[in-house]
Design goal:
The chain has helices at 6-56, 59-75, 77-85, 88-93, 101-115, 118-126, 130-140, 144-157, 161-169, 173-183, 186-200, 205-211, 214-221, 228-238, 242-249, 252-264, 267-284, 286-293, 302-306. It is mainly alpha-helical and 307 residues long. It folds into 2 domains: 46-157, Leucine-rich Repeat Variant (Alpha Horseshoe); 161-307, Leucine-rich Repeat Variant. Helix 1 (6-56) packs parallel to helix 3 (77-85) and helix 10 packs parallel to helix 13 (214-221). ARM repeats lie at residues 87-129.
Amino acid sequence: MKNGNKPFVFQKRSNSIKTSNIEALFRLQTSLAANRITAIKANRITALMLVEQLSAGSQEVKAVAARELRLMAKIEKENRSFIAEGGAIPTLYRLFRSTNPVAQENALTAILNISIHDENKRKIMEENGCLELIVYVLRYGLTTEARENAAATLFSLSAVHDFKKMIMDEHGAVAALADFLMQGSPRGKKDAVMALFNLSTHPESWSQMLNMGAVSALARALRDEIVAEEAAGALTLLMRHHILAQTIASEDTAITNLVGLMKRGTPKAKENAIAALQEMCRRGGLNVIQNVAKMPMFSGLIQTILL
């Protein structure tokens, strides 16, 4: 064979290899797609079986089914739809009053995982008694994780504007979040403050937040570096109402904590602290400005705040 023909043969073989690779890739993708469809169908059937066990099984069987649904809802968005569509929500929340700590924790966590899917948030909120029992677990949960996940569930649900007032109007919800912000675990405090932040974005939130102790809890949380940033952000929103601006300003600790956060906090925490002090001065009136200006550590900064 002449040397001049070699490039032609090489090119032909190269094209053949490329075609073969493309075909192999296509077959692999087709196989993976088929496997995924099969897995989705299997998960749907499994979800329905587990819901049935929650409805009719013994207490031990229900506890196991809740655990399996918790795990399913964590790993695939399709699973969250299957579980809710299969009627799991009412069967899960009935376990919230279980005297079995593991069953209660798994049921609550399954609801939390289900709530990640936005459509399921509405189903949870529309289920009569479900919100009430989420608050119950937040207050009286048998394990720390159950209480943490109850706070996280309220955080998840409060992300939807239409549900903010419903949560605030639920008896004990705001007070329970405020208490958990003060006395919960580090992770629980984080979810509680984020839930309160979400609720603070509602224009009618200020009276509930004040009367249920959330404003005081947020002001004290400014000393806690785990939640100070979000607490300052929530207070900024709430102090758009002049009554709250005056109320918070009347507490020397709140002003002290905000000024301290300006000095020691993260960049975002400092930004939120400055914004909170700005709202306090703008909405609170002359007396508030004078109270802020009296703070020894605040000397020389008042002009910055009022810009």
